[in-house]
Amino acid sequence: MAIRKTKAAAPVLAHASGMNLLFQCDNLECLRHLKEQGFENMLDLVYIDPPFQSGERYYYRNKNKTGVAFEDSWDSEAYLEMLRARLVEIRKLMSSSGSIFVHLDWHASHYAKVLMDRIFGPENFRNEIIVKRGRRKNLQYQFKAIDRMHNAHDSILWYSKTEKAKFVPPVVPHKSEAQWMGFWSNTDRPTMRYEIFGYSPERGQWKWSKARALKAIDNYKTYASKFSNQASLEDYWNQTGRSEEFIRKRENVKYAEYWIPPKSHRILDNVWLDVEAYDYSTGYGTEKHQQLLDRIIAQFSTRGALVADFFCGSGTTLVLAEKLGRRWIGCDSSSKAISVTRKRLGKSSYSLVDL
Fold first, then answer.
1. Where are the domains positioned within the chain?
2. Percentage helix, strand, coil, to 5, in the chain?
């Protein structure tokens, strides 16, 4: 295990050498220190899981011992000021193409959205991501009457630093069979109305440009006239490089149809019900699930990127950043959290900084 205990000046050397950094201190102090040490505009991805303003007490359980990890009890104004001050400093450290993901729940996510619009600009809001909470049980079966529904999801607010930031479409494994779909759409674009198969729609639009559609029609004519007796359309598509597109017109069907090839992946939307928000493997009460952080880090950063978590808790962000070949910075003020994080990091190389 390559761990170097250091004081304030060492992060400059750590930054220059690509050394990972783990801070045990108040994260506002950490953020301001990083700015002083030359980290402005350097962070490519930030994930934070700040207090939720839930009013609850969270525990750390280790074998037969249970202790308080932290108390999430705040006056509303104090909570928002705490969050505001840290978001302002985080933005200074983010690169021009950087993103921040802020994980909250119903207690404060709507207030945080307004706050982040002011700090990052509403034009840099990307998505509110819905992620299921996981194995938290619905206890309402025991009651004859309830005053609200069970809360089964958390919210993650995703912002970029600038409007120009672009991202490779995020994908997840998903198997679907090839199918034919109608080529007409009810979106009204007159420039996308043209004649094919002797028909031009008077409203709506065709889904592709005219040149692309005509090429796809020719592709299908070639297949139907020369190869349909030898191979299925899917086999023909595979044999010709998996790139050709096809459009056909069947009798007694009003509109043309286009062929959607089989898929092994799908592009993610903002509802993530296939991963869970929480895991409970370390005994740390707010431990986030590796599936969740794997998705965020893998899909929205590249190898060698600098990833940071300034409420790192049990260290899931840092563990996944290490696994995925990213550089990382973590911070937490809790000695229990740092202890859990260091144990999970194992033989990872990093500098432990005590401000």
1. 3-171+267-353, 178-261
2. 30, 30, 40
109-120 and 76-93 helices cross at what angle (nearest 10)? 40
Residue recorded with tokens 């929480």: 278
Give the full edge-to-edge strand order of the sheet including 179-182: 179-182, 257-260, 247-248
In whole angstroms, give the CA distance from residue 146 to residue 156. 27
In the predicted structure, residue 344 carries a pLDDT above the cut 80: yes
Q: What's the CA gap between 77 and 165, in Å, rounded?
A: 32
The two three-digit tokens of residue 246, written as one number: 């096809």
**Assigned architecture for domain 3-171+267-353:** 3-Layer(aba) Sandwich (3.40)
On average, the pLDDT of the chain sits at 89
Length of the chain: 355
- pLDDT bin (cut points 50, 70, 90) of residue 181 is very high
Q: Which residues pair with 265 in a beta bridge?
A: 173
> Using CB atoms within 10 A of its CB, is residue 291 exposed (0-12), middle (13-18) or buried (19+)?
middle
Structure token digits, residue 272: 């993530």
pLDDT tens for each residue of 242-267: 999 999 999 989 899 999 999 999 99
Res. 68: pLDDT tops 90: no
Q: How many CB atoms neighbour CB 84 within 10 A?
A: 15
- Which tokens hold the place of 4? 């170097």
pLDDT at 352 exceeding the cut of 90: yes
The DSSP string of 253-264 is -SS-EEEEPPEE
Contacts of 253 (CB under 8 A, 6+ apart): none
Q: Beta partners for 159?
A: 100, 125
Paired tokens of 61: 């359980």
What is the CB neighbour count within 10 angstroms for residue 36?
12
pLDDT at site 1: 43
* CA pair distance 92, 87, nearest whole angstrom: 9
Give residue 260's Cα distance to chain centre.
27
For 316-327, b/e burial (b = at least 16 CB within 10 A) is bbbbbbbebebb
Average the pLDDT over each of 95-104, 149-158, 177-186, 253-262 and give the range with the smallest value: 149-158
Beta-bridge partners for 157: 102, 128
* Residue at 226: amino acid letter: K
Compute the distance between CA of residue 146 and CA of residue 227 in angstroms, rounded to an integer.
Answer: 64
